[in-house]
């Protein structure tokens, strides 16, 4: 576990330790080195190289963009499968990751959001995209989240834009007053709005509109345990998915 002392790292360490078919073989987090990993007697280390010496099969990364990219280079070179929930990875980063694992015996799963309900929300948004005229996304997260808009919002906007294009439905209507309080223009012209407040965890609304009607899809994660089933699914699946898989949807069959 990379980022073992963080909010998600603690949650995942506890879940892996409790799973009968998984073993927490190594935990890394320079900010928490020497502490015990959650749910385990394993001490958190400082050097990611311990993944190799501990014969780790799958590395789970919830750190930051710069650290995650360094960890992925190490994993690809060492033949260690990777599951990445770190947000803030841009298109160029993803292209590098794909290249790293194309030439590696290891595989990688990268997802902006590991909540299964969030993956279903994105799929439903893809289905709705060709039939309604406009789309905007509002994402709400805890105050400590570094990136805005969220990776989930960007991935959702890209998915609905691609679905609309594939259906030949033409671009979404963007409306007047672009910019400012209208939010950032994301993929396909979908406007993205970010909220950061204490007490929130991870929440998103996808709003579609056409004359005389609207459709709202909303997903709420009230606790970080909501991400655990998706992370464990990826850990158990990554060895059978060659190369790099982006998003949780393919693991769920869509």
Give the topology, please.
Blueprint: H1 7-18, H2 50-53, E1 58-61, H3 65-78, E2 81-84, H4 91-102, E3 108-110, H5 116-128, E4 134-141, H6 151-166, E5 184-185, E6 191-196, E7 202-210, E8 213-221, H7 228-237, E9 244-246, H8 249-252
Parallel strand pairs: 1-2, 2-3, 3-9, 4-6
Antiparallel strand pairs: 4-7, 5-6, 7-8
Q: How many strands, which pairing sense, and closed or not: the largest β-sheet?
A: 5 strands, mixed
Quaternary organization: single chain
* Continuous helix count: 8
Secondary-structure-based class equals: alpha/beta
Spatial sequence of strands, sheet with the most strands:
5-6-4-7-8
- CATH C-level of the largest domain: Alpha Beta
| Helical fraction | 25-40%
Beta-strand percentage? Answer: 15-25%
Question: What is the assigned CATH homologous superfamily of the largest domain?
Answer: NAD(P)-binding Rossmann-like Domain
End-to-end span in angstroms? 27 Å
Question: What's the count of strands?
Answer: 9
Care to describe what's here?
Helix content is 33%, strand content 19%. The chain is of the alpha/beta class and 254 residues long. It folds into two domains: 7-110 and 225-252, Rossmann fold (3-Layer(aba) Sandwich); 116-222, Dihydrodipicolinate Reductase, domain 2 (2-Layer Sandwich), CATH 3.30.360.10. Helix 4 (91-102) links the parallel strand 2 and strand 3. The strands form two sheets. The chain has a five-stranded mixed sheet with strand order 5-6-4-7-8, with helices on one face. The protein has a four-stranded parallel sheet with strand order 1-2-3-9, sandwiched between helices. The mean pLDDT is 95. The two termini are 27 Å apart. The chain contains eight helices and nine strands.
């Amino acid at each position: 576990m990379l980022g073992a002392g963080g909010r998600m790292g603690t949650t995942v360490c506890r879940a892996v330790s409790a799973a009968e078919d998984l073993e927490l073989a190594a935990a890394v987090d320079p900010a928490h080195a020497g502490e015990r990993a959650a749910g385990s007697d394993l001490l958190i280390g400082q050097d990611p190289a311990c993944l190799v010496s501990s014969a780790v099969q799958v590395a789970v990364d919830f750190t930051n963009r710069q650290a995650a990219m360094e960890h992925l280079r190490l994993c690809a070179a060492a033949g260690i499968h990777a599951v990445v929930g770190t947000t803030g990875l841009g298109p160029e980063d993803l292209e590098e990751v794909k290249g790293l694992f194309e030439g590696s015996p290891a595989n990688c799963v990268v997802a902006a959001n590991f909540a299964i309900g969030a993956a279903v929300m994105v799929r439903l948004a893809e289905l709705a995209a060709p039939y309604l005229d406009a789309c905007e996304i509002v994402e709400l997260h805890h105050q400590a989240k570094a990136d805005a808009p969220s990776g989930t919002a960007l991935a959702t906007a890209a998915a609905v834009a691609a679905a609309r294009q594939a259906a030949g439905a033409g671009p979404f209507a963007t409306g007047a007053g672009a910019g400012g309080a209208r939010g950032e223009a994301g993929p396909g012209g979908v406007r993205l709005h970010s909220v950061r407040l204490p007490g929130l965890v991870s929440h998103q609304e996808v709003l579609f509109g056409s004359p005389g009607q609207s459709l709202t899809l909303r997903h709420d994660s009230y606790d970080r345990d909501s991400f655990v089933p998706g992370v464990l699914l990826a850990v158990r699946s990554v060895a059978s998915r060659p190369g790099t898989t982006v998003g949780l949807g393919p693991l769920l069959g869509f």
